[in-house]
Design brief:
The protein has four helices and five strands. It is an alpha+beta fold. The chain has one domain: YaeB-like fold, CATH 3.30.2310. The chain has a five-stranded mixed beta sheet. Strand 4 and strand 5 form a beta hairpin.
């Protein structure tokens, strides 16, 4: 998968240093994968949740953090939309939050 907004991911790695290693592992893993439909994501990441608007929520560090991405299955692209603590995640609507450059 082609991960769009990798710079945003690196920003989150600096801001949330406790989660940096797992975010890096996620990035290195996902860029080698090919997802054609949402169920493909769940095969590779059974703890992830697929939601409306072709979005996926990945728990990071035992759900202490949440990563939300948008997936364009046709063109094999993953868009970084949100990353934050679980408390920060509770304050947003994962289905409608817009990508905002940090």
């Amino acid at each position: 998968m082609n991960i769009i907004a990798r710079g945003t991911l690196w920003y989150y790695m600096k801001r949330y240093s406790l989660a940096a290693k797992q975010l890096e592992l996620w990035h290195n893993d996902v860029r080698k994968l090919k997802w054609k439909k949402s169920t493909d994501v769940l095969v590779d990441y059974p703890k992830a949740r697929t939601i409306k608007n072709n979005r996926v929520i990945f728990p990071i560090l035992g759900n202490a953090y949440c990563l939300i991405v948008g997936v364009d299955y046709r063109f094999e692209r993953v868009f970084i939309i949100f990353f934050g603590t679980h408390a920060e995640y509770d304050e947003i609507n994962a289905e409608t939050i817009d990508y905002k450059k940090p």
